[in-house]
Amino acid sequence: MKTVKIRNLVIGGGKPKVCVPMMGDEEAVLRTAEGIKKSRADLAEWRIDTDPDWNNESHILQTAEKLRSVLGDMPLLFTFRTREEGGSAAVSEERYRELNRTMIRSGLIDLVDVEFFKTEETVKSLIREAEAHGVRTVLSNHDFEKTPQEEEIVRRLCAMQEAGADLAKIAVMPKEEQDVIELLNATWTMKKFHPDTPVITMSMGQRGMISRLCGELYGSAVTFAAYEKASAPGQMQVEEVREIIEKLHV
Ligand SMILES: O=C1C[C@@](O)(C(=O)O)C[C@@H](O)[C@@H]1O
């Protein structure tokens, strides 16, 4: 599988890398960042949509600077998760583009999450902007209601690869056990037949928890784990996840 190197971290192949979300206002995210730094996480995700002051650019740039100095060399992923995809804030297409553009240009982040179902213009322009500034793009899609069929999951992930993602991500919700198998099958199909871009997949909720642990076997390059507070249903604590993925290492 092709790999992506960010600072000293190699994503793709081997044990899945552990990403821990930071949520809330500046004080809360900085507190979480201190905890993450001491944990065995590999990278940190800043969920800007959970900051009540997300729409204030000078504020988020200041927070980003502080985060950067706490995290040191740990890669930082910037994510605005919109309400349509299970996030905390609703944002216009234009504002979504502007905020992401500002952060991409800031030199303070390593990766940016771009929701694949935004307009083609938004997706393309943010990928271009990220490429120009040495920021890696995670194209993402979330379904908090259901799990599409394997073929559809594969189709979306391949479309993300073709659009120029550095990492292609999908999170889906299972309604029954079979849905988790569907997601794992899709993940394995990507590993086997479309290995050019590392993928990140998860089946959410309690039923899907297993999918957050077996990435090495089936081909998910990153798993999301909580430092105290989970950002999505089914996330386990970072140290628990770390221990299990070490044990499952082949
Ligand atoms: O996309 C993802 C994955 C996620 O939804 C999860 O299920 O772990 C958690 C989000 O914080 C992150 O942006």
TrEMBL record:
Q: Which Pfam families does the record cross-reference, listed alphabetically? A: DHquinase_I
Please give the function described in this protein's UniProt entry. Answer: Involved in the third step of the chorismate pathway, which leads to the biosynthesis of aromatic amino acids. Catalyzes the cis-dehydration of 3-dehydroquinate (DHQ) and introduces the first double bond of the aromatic ring to yield 3-dehydroshikimate.
The record's listing under HAMAP family reads: AroD (MF_00214)
Subunit relationships: Homodimer.
Q: Does the keyword Mitochondrion apply?
A: no
Q: Give residues annotated as binding 3-dehydroquinate.
A: E45, W46, R47, R81, R212, S231, Q235
By its UniProt entry, which CDD domains does this protein fall under? Answer: DHQase_I
| Gene field | aroD
UniProt KW keywords: Amino-acid biosynthesis, Aromatic amino acid biosynthesis, Lyase, Schiff base
Q: Does the keyword Lyase apply?
A: yes
Q: Which organism is it from?
A: Sellimonas catena
Name the family: Belongs to the type-I 3-dehydroquinase family.
Query: What is this protein's record name?
Result: 3-dehydroquinate dehydratase
Instruction: Supply the EC number(s).
Output: 4.2.1.10
| Catalytic reactions on record | 3-dehydroquinate = 3-dehydroshikimate + H2O
